[in-house]
Amino acid sequence: MVTLKEVFTDICNSLYEGFILLDNDENIVLINERAKLLLEDYDEGDRGTKLKENIKKLNFKEQICNGKPEFNSTLKLGENTLIINKIPIHVSGIIKGAIGIFQDSKLQGNFLDTNSSSNILNTIMDTTKECVVVVNKDGIITMMSKCYKEFLECENPEGKYVEDIIDNTRLPNILESGNIEYGDVQIIQGREVVAMRVPIKNKESVIGAIGKIMFRDIGQLALLNNKVSVLKNEVEFYKNELGKERISKYSFDNIIGISKKALEVKRICKLLAKTDSTVLIVGESGTGKELHASAIHNASKRSLGPFIKINCGAIPGSLIESELFGYDEGAFTGAKKGGKKGKFELADGGTIFLDEIGEMPIDMQVRLLRVIQEKEVERVGGNTLKKIDIRIIAATNINLEEAVEQGRFRRDLYYRLNVMKVEIPPLREKKEDIELLADSLRVKVANKLGLYVEGISKKAIDILKNYNWPGNIRELENVIERAINLLDSGSLTIEPKHLPKSIVKNKYKNTFHEERKLSEIIESVEKRSIERCLAETKWNKNKTAKLLGISRANLYKKIEKYNIEKR
Fold first, then answer.
1. Beta bridge partners of 201
2. Chain segment 14-72, per-residue pLDDT in tens
């Protein structure tokens, strides 16, 4: 069966002019024999050795980058001169490459008007099944594709004014303004179509225009939009499925921030991605420790390997050993037949992320130390050691040095984990990032809820910037989601009225704090400190009391006094 490319090649080889078709990287897609002859004849070395070099001299950058056609340009090769026409190729409004048609100046007079060049362009337009029309500077049709003629039910439109042939055409406006129009709705033959129009320029002068129907029925656009929506849903589904296969889903592009502290942390993490060293990420709850760990993995040589996450503080002490190290068949009552791989085995060849490492039971810390040192694991109930190739990234929101002094964390394990330490600053220390983060979360939450939210007002941003954010970015996301849910039908922008009263009130207090009594200021600071510690410990009152240096009973009294509620 004869292919389309073979048909094109036969057509082009029958031409007397040189013909070349390039993609948008200036790679040769098609070149006829005449073009090879013209270009190779001017080589200084062996025939054909500088063909690509001479093609580069034709210089199609203006057509491929800016979509501007160029006619009757010249190129001197040796003692000869070529006359060249350069025409960009648009597909659905996107530049896909360019066509070059050229001839030796000694053999050709007015190259632009040759029937052969017109035949080439007509052949291309007819073969691509696109509705395309070309007019000269006076608005007279010089070329129209067969597909467009059939759409208009018009046999011989060439030589006629475009207004007499195409309903509601704006090509005369393009000839006058010299501007490009994309995605415009136009009624032709009683049907709504989506059209684009591009001026043809020679230097600064408009010498013609091209019109193209992008969608012959506006319903096609709706259909395409539906297809895109379906594809988006499919992509989201497969992303979720990949997530089940333990693939890291965050990269450095997902880390938003322009503050010096945020950029410095990002820079350090990018350097760490190039190594295989153990990393310890410290920061308050909600600062994005998992996000940074995921980005390090995705930018590392292990990116194609698994990214295994485990929250050491969320697994009961009785299960953490089997979760981390797995178990053999018959290890205990209820053990699965054939046993089960632990998190370390699943992470083989990739990265394991140990979140809340400070909450790991002291007896498990001994086994973790061995894994780090020996790079081998032994399942519960098993008697064989298995070598593993893993990178460990640990994270915590507590002060491990204090935990070591208090005997709650092994000193030797701390030194093993603290090879490369990354400290993520809390949101209150990089308030210049709040506007960017809030807007990014607005888009994320609105997409999740299937709503359209135009933006966040400046007054609302000022209030957000003035708050101390004990829950950091996680708390900010919750505030944005709450605000979006409170938007009424007539509002598309988040305003101060959509924010929690506690945050708006905080703005007022911070603005006029000089008018408050000293006791009120102390109580306000005390309340915020308790809220921050509760958020850090996930409302573990024992840990909160220890962090604050007060008794548990005293903590309960203060929670009641300040009416602090879990959020």
1. 206
2. 666 788 888 887 888 888 887 887 776 544 444 445 677 777 777 888 777 777 788 77
CA angle 466, 468, 473 (to 5 degrees): 105
DSSP summary character for residue 259: S
Is residue 18 a contact partner of residue 39, using CB atoms and an 8 Å limit?
A: yes
Query: Edge-to-edge, what's the strand order for the sheet holding 351-355?
Result: 307-311, 351-355, 391-396, 279-282, 420-423
SS3 of 87, please?
strand
For the whole model, what pTM was predicted? Answer: 0.49
H or E segment at 224? helix 218-244
In Å, what is the CA distance from 429 to each residue of 150, 260, 358, 409, 519? 66, 10, 24, 28, 26
Q: Which residue type is seen at 34?
A: R
Q: Contact 183/194 with Cβ under 8 angstroms?
A: yes
Segment holding 422, helix H or strand E:
strand 420-423
pLDDT tens for 521-534 read: 778 788 888 888 88
Q: Are 12 and 32 in contact (CB under 8 A)?
A: yes
Domains of the chain: 1-116 (3.30.450.20), 129-222 (3.30.450.20), 252-423 (3.40.50.300), 432-561 (1.10.8.60)
**pLDDT over 50 (residue 2):** no
What's the rounded Cα separation, in Å, for the pair 252 and 266?
7
Is residue 289 within 8 A of residue 470, CB to CB? The reply is no
Q: Render pLDDT for 102-129 as a digit per residue (tens, 0 to 9).
A: 877 665 544 444 444 555 566 666 655 7
Q: How many Cβ atoms from other residues are within 10 Å of residue 289's Cβ?
A: 23
Are 268 and 405 in contact, with CB atoms under 8 Å apart? Answer: no
394 within 8 A of 354, measured Cβ to Cβ = yes
Q: Which helix (H) or strand (E) holds 29?
A: strand 28-31
User: Are the beta carbons of 29 and 17 closer than 8 angstroms?
Assistant: no
Look at residue 92 and give its three-state secondary structure. Answer: coil
C-alpha atoms less than 13 angstroms from C-alpha of 339 in its C-beta half-sphere: 15
Measured CA distances, 272 to 4, 97, 208, 235, 422 (Å): 51, 40, 56, 30, 10
> Nearest 5°: CA angle at 492, between 475 and 506?
35
User: 207, 259, 18: which is closest to 120 by C-alpha?
Assistant: 18
Rounded distance between C-alpha atoms, residue 15 and residue 32, angstroms: 8
186 and 195 Cβ atoms separated by less than 8 Å: yes
Q: Which residues contact 78 (CB under 8 A, 6 or more apart)?
A: 42, 44
pLDDT exceeds 80 at position 218 = no
CB 143 within 8 A of CB 121: yes
